[in-house]
Amino acid sequence: MQKILAYPLTVIYFLFFGIALVVFHPIQWICFTLFGYNAHKASVSLLNLCLIRCTHFLGTTYKFNNPHRLPTDRPLIIVSNHQSMNDIPPIIWFMRAHHPKFVSKIELGKGIPSVSYNLRHGGSVLINRKDSKQALVQIAKLGKYIEKHKRSAVIFPEGTRSRDGHPKRFQPTGLKVLIKHAPSALIVPLSINNSWKLLRYGKFPYGIGNHITFDVQEPIENNGNFDEVFALVEARVKSGIHPPQ
């Protein structure tokens, strides 16, 4: 019965999701072209709040737990597990004070209203996963960017999303490059739960009635020992991931 109900609710969700992307595309362009970074960033934050609201048609609820007073005057590297593309709007909205930027696959850089524009103009980087040299250059660019502007980079070290909620092994390379080029960054582990359930049936219909949680774990200072930092951040992220039910 739940899956049957999911079909019409998913159609409604996609309708409003698409409207939000189309409406905010020219808004982003106007903000970026006429008013600069801060206006564009505000429009992106509002867009992602709207995208969160769209998932309410699916009965999705959210809780973002951040018991830590994260600084806004230094760069952050947010390291998270990855369960679906629906991880991203809540990170952008709830972490908006820290100006989150993403390492995204190059295919998302064109053809998607609002999303592609923001990835190309908002400070994120696009990597070609088939070209490791290009990917490392772009990640280094992001590290330099957040170091200079005191913003945050979001990286998903699993490399791809978990389809069943079980975390994959973290890959160290991207994080190592970010830390190298943003040495003053505070490293912030983030644990995401239940986002994968939105795609439990595949791309259509979406899963309904899910409660998605985001838990910011204790931040980690860069002590210069990457292996130690990497092991600690992976352990803290995974400590907050609940066994799939």
Question: Mind explaining what this structure looks like?
Answer:
The chain has one domain: 3-Layer(aba) Sandwich (Glycerol-3-phosphate (1)-acyltransferase). Helix content is 44%, strand content 15%. It contains 7 helices and 7 strands; from the N terminus they run ααββαβαβαβαββα. It has a 7-stranded mixed sheet with strand order 1-7-6-2-5-3-4, sandwiched between helices. α4 links the parallel β3 and β4. Keywords: Acyltransferase, Lipid biosynthesis, Lipid metabolism, Membrane, Transferase, Transmembrane, Transmembrane helix. This is 1-acyl-sn-glycerol-3-phosphate acyltransferase.
Briefly note the CATH topology name: Glycerol-3-phosphate (1)-acyltransferase
Radius of gyration based on Cα positions = 18 Å
Give helix % range: 40-55%
Mean pLDDT across the residues is 95
User: How many beta-strand elements?
Assistant: 7
CATH architecture: 3-Layer(aba) Sandwich
Distance between the termini: 19 Å
What is the overall silhouette? globular
What's the CATH H-level homologous superfamily? Glycerol-3-phosphate (1)-acyltransferase
Please summarize the sheet with the most strands. 7 strands, mixed
Q: How many domains comprise the coordinates?
A: 1
Our estimate of the beta-strand percent is 15-25%
Strands of the biggest beta sheet: in what spatial order? 1-7-6-2-5-3-4
CATH class: Alpha Beta
Series of H and E elements? HHEEHEHEHEHEEH
Structural class: alpha/beta
User: Number of DSSP helices?
Assistant: 7
Low-confidence stretches: none
